[in-house]
Amino acid sequence: MTKYPMTVRGARALEEELNHLTKVVRPKLSQDIGTARELGDLKENAEYHAAREQQGMVEARVRDIEGRLQNAQVIDVTAIPSTGKVIFGTTVEIANVETDDRVTYQIVGEDEADIKLGKISVGSPIARALIAKEEGDVVVVRTPSGVIEYEIVEVRHL
């Protein structure tokens, strides 16, 4: 079975979501379904059907999270000695060779990626270009708008 890389923070976030769904949302939905059932005829009971539909979505999400956690390979980058090499979980500061514009990204699993927070998926073109490179290396990233060269300024294990 294929294992999917995930940071400690990413695994913790999924566990918290799973806990919230199973301990808070599930019981509330069960209560809502019971209340709606008491309203009478189930064929024309919109509250009942809405609650059942919501319950189905919650159960699907619970199964999805359980599957992701079961197949996760949780990597704690802080426990790995820093060598200046880009690996999964590291935070990388890069500079555009032409413009000297700097940006910082953390390389994370697919579920954790959020460009607004500076987290890019390990499968993204920029992450694939950076992996296994070292501080000072220049990498070429092919983007839809063309080829961009970046210099790796700093690699941190946060």
Number of E-state strands: 7
Largest sheet: 5 strands, mixed
Strands ordered across the widest β-sheet: 5-4-3-7-6
What value does the average pLDDT take? 92
Calculate Rg over CA atoms. Answer: 22 Å
SS-derived structural category: alpha/beta
The CATH class of the largest domain turns out to be: Alpha Beta
CATH superfamily of the largest domain: Transcription elongation factor, GreA/GreB, C-terminal domain
List the uncertain runs.
Answer: none
Assembly category = single chain
* Percent helix: 25-40%
Which overall shape is indicated by the principal axes computed on the Cα atoms?
Answer: elongated
Helix-strand pattern = EHHEEEEHEE
Bin the strand percentage: 25-35%
Count the domains: 2
Assign the CATH architecture of the largest domain: Roll
Organism: Pseudomonas cavernicola
Pfam families: GreA_GreB (PF01272), GreA_GreB_N (PF03449)
Domain Transcription elongation factor GreA/GreB C-terminal: 83-156
GO molecular function: DNA binding; RNA polymerase binding; translation elongation factor activity
List keywords for this structure.
158 residues, alpha/beta, Helix Hairpins, Chitinase A, domain 3, 2 domains, 5-stranded mixed sheet, 39% helix, 26% strand, elongated, Tscrpt_elong_fac_GreA, DNA-binding
Could you characterize the architecture of this molecule?
Residues 83-156 form the Transcription elongation factor GreA/GreB C-terminal domain. Pfam families: GreA_GreB, GreA_GreB_N. Residues 5-74 form the Transcription elongation factor GreA/GreB N-terminal domain. InterPro entries: GreA/GreB_C_sf, TF_GreA/GreB_CS, Tscrpt_elong_fac_GreA, Tscrpt_elong_fac_GreA/B, Tscrpt_elong_fac_GreA/B_C, Tscrpt_elong_fac_GreA/B_fam, Tscrpt_elong_fac_GreA/B_N, Tscrpt_elong_fac_GreA/B_N_sf. With 158 residues, the protein is α/β, with parallel strands linked by helices. The protein has two domains: 4-75, Orthogonal Bundle (Helix Hairpins); 80-156, Chitinase A, domain 3 (Roll), CATH 3.10.50.30. Helices cover 39% and strands 26% of the residues. It contains three helices and seven strands. It has helices spanning 8-37, 46-70, 125-130, and strands at 4-7, 72-75, 91-96, 102-108, 119-121, 138-143, 146-156. The protein has a five-stranded mixed β-sheet. β3 and β4 (102-108) form a beta hairpin.
